[in-house]
Amino acid sequence: MKLPKAFLTSNIVGISSGGGHLSELLASIPGDIKDEITYITVKNGHTKKSLKNVNHYFIVDPHTSKVKYLINLIHAFFLFIIIRPKVIISTGAGIVIPFMMIGKLFGSKLIFIETGARVYTASKSGEFMYKYADKFFVQYETLLKKYPKSILGSLH
Q1: pTM of this prediction?
Q2: Which run of H or of E encompasses 9?
Q3: Domain containing 100 — which CATH number?
């Protein structure tokens, strides 16, 4: 039996929703470790193409469905058990919270990067994860007022 590549990596997970969040996540990862990370996101044409040559899993996007949130939580738990990440990096949005909270419960280090789309106001996932993230980054100085213990850094 061949082990999935996830068992052979440095146990770093990058998780985000698709679209801009995934683009920012990919931009935030240093080039020399891009291939060592297991990515988790929703399945669509953009994400399938963006993650074609790296280790990845797709997770259910709950959007606004309570049933799908439960499915997302169960799916996140099983993915966590398979990968056992030591570090979880995320740029949001809501699909990431169950996975990151499971990670926190089991001792993973959490890194959250507030989306670059947020210049003046906080995102819902950012507001939630600020309390739990080991490292929290904002991309605009204006958000330092909202997140006083965050680190300023830009992906641009």
Answers
A1: 0.89
A2: none
A3: 3.40.50.2000
